[in-house]
Write a structure and sequence with these properties.
This protein is mainly α and 216 residues long. The chain is built from 9 helices and no strands. Helix content is 70%, strand content 0%.
Length: 216
């Protein structure tokens, strides 16, 4: 995902932590919740895979200096430039590994979601109000999706904590460190670390769901 308007450090950094983390991760979990039953797979492994898919944004670490905050990720970063090849490779893998076929199809949908959100953010010129609005919409959607879950309170706390922590990191990078996308890998490295952190937390908190035959 691209990282904002070069006119303000808040604008640019927001695209790293807000949409990159809060938006991408919350949307990925919502996708897993909606799609796991139609795909015939358990929610937990699909959610883990969907969250992990967002680590493709680690490609921003390679050519970070090209990222002035007003470009297009699909023109700048390797795993975004090769989105069609990555998607096709995923589909071919599903044909080969038939035992894991449905889960791999879920991973394919998670990839499409990630790239689709990147395209949407580019379409609205990385408007911070739109991105934060999307995050809030995701939070609102997750409430009914997890309402019947026995662990719904734990899920809600996780979702809200994820959102708040991402914004706390955003504020620290913007107002304290004054980081700019094209000047440091720190912005992108932080986002990758946070992605891994929340992936690990999700595994730790909800791994008991993996043993359930039918996750509500």
């Amino acid at each position: 995902m691209k990282h904002g308007d070069s006119s303000t450090s808040l604008g640019m950094t927001a695209k790293t932590t807000n949409m990159y983390l809060a938006g991408h991760l919350l949307a990925s979990i919502a996708l897993a919740k909606v799609a796991h039953k139609p795909l015939g797979v358990k929610f937990f492994p699909l959610a883990i895979a969907a969250i992990a898919v967002n680590l493709i944004d680690a490609d921003h670490l390679i050519y970070y200096y090209r990222d002035t905050g007003i470009g297009n990720s699909f023109l700048l970063h390797p795993l975004h430039q090769g989105w069609a090849f990555l998607g096709l490779a995923t589909l071919l893998l599903a044909l080969v590994l038939k035992e894991w076929q449905n889960l791999i199809f879920g991973i394919f949908f998670a990839l499409i979601l990630h790239y689709g959100l990147d395209a949407l953010a580019n379409l609205v010129v990385y408007d911070l109000k739109v991105i934060v609005g999307f995050e809030i919409l995701c939070l609102a959607l997750l409430i009914p999706l997890f309402w019947k879950s026995k662990q719904r309170l734990k899920y809600y706390i996780f979702f809200i904590s994820l959102w708040l922590f991402c914004n706390a990191v955003l504020g620290f990078e913007s107002y304290i460190l004054h980081w700019q996308p094209h000047e440091t890998r720190g912005i992108y490295l932080t986002a990758v670390i946070l992605n891994i952190l929340f992936l690990g937390l999700f595994w730790k908190l909800f791994k008991s769901e993996y043993g359930e035959s039918n996750v509500s």
